[in-house]
């Protein structure tokens, strides 16, 4: 983020070295937060524990974040962006090649890969488990981490409606659940294996319907 | 269960009063197990705690069950059967009126009612949360509590395939996820409100597909 015009002094004080040190601390804090929540769960993760593991003072964390939930939230956003970059994808984009089936298959295959990424799996499960029994936290994390992705599906389905590839009368926010939720439930509850073939099948069933045409 | 022919003495010793006392203890243990897991979560629920709350000795629990997971499993099966009886439904049955859309709408509406039942909600959430981070327990509870219900959908969809109402080439075990999983995810992750209108919509989208016909 560019420094605002009104704060030239603060901007001048931030030397390249200080920025590099900050960036290093920030990354150590993210790694510590994700590692700790994966190992001990959300309830037992504390700001003190994150600070100790990251090798920084507690006050360094409180300078940037107001709570452990805030730290974890940003750590997850950062992790998702990293994973997308490494996979050669722009984060927060669903392609629009004009073929809605192909585009949905591609994005769901990428999601399968992310769900199987060990860096992502354990901390995500810890957070999801807490969200099931802690409604307030569940709602915050869904709003910040899940809904932004779901809105991309809404946009892509709206484009498909304009192109005549999806029925004009369907509500895209519900429609997307026909392929997103089965994958989520298999991952969360171990109700079945997840694979590219599986998500391709979901896209076929959802678009074409279970009833004969 | 009828006493086996080879054990007439044991059978004779079980007076109506003893049976009634046993049944009362069993129900107190189920209630204690469900209440405790809802309040403190799965990890902190112990056989000792269940016994104390039920007003029975620990050895009474170990006479009938081998672990807290076993007690909880049976307590949930009992709760689901009770809820079905009270709703005037036979447990473990999906109706077959010949109209697959109507039958799916009916069973999903009943599921919505059960998910909103306060007796069911807190203990179910506690168990589901543990299952997300404890793969072994998650798999056992899915196999014992969830899969038997899912098999009913498989059977109903197979009948619909024979009647020509569902495509012959779909895999019923995947197809059922188009309406079951969205409801499960909304309930587990607070990703949206659940209602009869919502599940009716899922059945429409799943059977007819998102693409225009």
UniProtKB/TrEMBL annotation, chains A, B:
Among InterPro entries, the record links this protein to: Homeodomain-like_sf (IPR009057), HTH-type_TetR-like_transc_reg (IPR050109), HTH_TetR (IPR001647), Tet_transcr_reg_TetR-rel_C_sf (IPR036271), TetR_C (IPR011075)
Q: Which residues form the signal peptide?
A: none
Q: Where is the HTH tetR-type domain?
A: 23-83
This protein's record includes keyword DNA-binding: yes
- Record field: compositional bias (Low complexity): 1-17
Residues the UniProt record assigns to the DNA-binding region sit at 46-65
Q: Which domain of life is it from?
A: Bacteria
A single Pfam family, by name? TetR_C_11
Spell out the residue ranges making up region: Disordered. 1-24
* Alphabetic keyword roster: DNA-binding, Transcription, Transcription regulation
Record-linked Gene3D superfamilies: Homeodomain-like, Tetracycline Repressor, domain 2
Q: Which PANTHER family match?
A: HTH-TYPE TRANSCRIPTIONAL REGULATOR RUTR (PTHR30055), TETR-FAMILY TRANSCRIPTIONAL REGULATOR (PTHR30055:SF148)
User: What protein name applies here?
Assistant: TetR/AcrR family transcriptional regulator
Taxonomic placement: Bacteria, Bacillati, Actinomycetota, Actinomycetes, Kitasatosporales
């Amino acid at each position: 983020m560019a420094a605002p015009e009104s704060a030239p002094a603060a901007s001048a004080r931030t030397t390249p070295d200080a920025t590099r040190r900050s960036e290093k601390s920030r990354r150590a804090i993210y790694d510590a937060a994700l590692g700790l929540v994966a190992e001990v769960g959300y309830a037992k993760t504390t700001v003190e524990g994150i600070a100790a593991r990251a090798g920084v003072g507690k006050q360094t964390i409180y300078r940037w974040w107001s709570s452990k939930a805030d730290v974890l939230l940003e750590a997850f956003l950062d992790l998702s962006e990293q994973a997308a970059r490494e996979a050669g994808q722009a984060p927060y984009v669903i392609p629009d090649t004009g073929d809605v089936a192909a585009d949905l298959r591609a994005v769901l295959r990428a999601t399968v890969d992310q769900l199987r990424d060990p860096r992502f799996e354990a901390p995500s499960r810890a957070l999801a488990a807490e969200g099931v029994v802690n409604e307030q936290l569940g709602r915050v994390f869904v709003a910040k981490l899940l809904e932004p992705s779901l809105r991309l599906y809404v946009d892509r389905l709206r484009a498909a409606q304009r192109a005549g590839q999806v029925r004009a009368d369907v509500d895209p926010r519900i429609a997307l659940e026909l392929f997103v939720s089965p994958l989520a439930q298999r991952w969360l509850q171990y109700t079945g294996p997840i694979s590219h073939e599986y998500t391709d099948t979901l896209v076929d069933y959802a678009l074409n319907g279970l009833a004969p045409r």
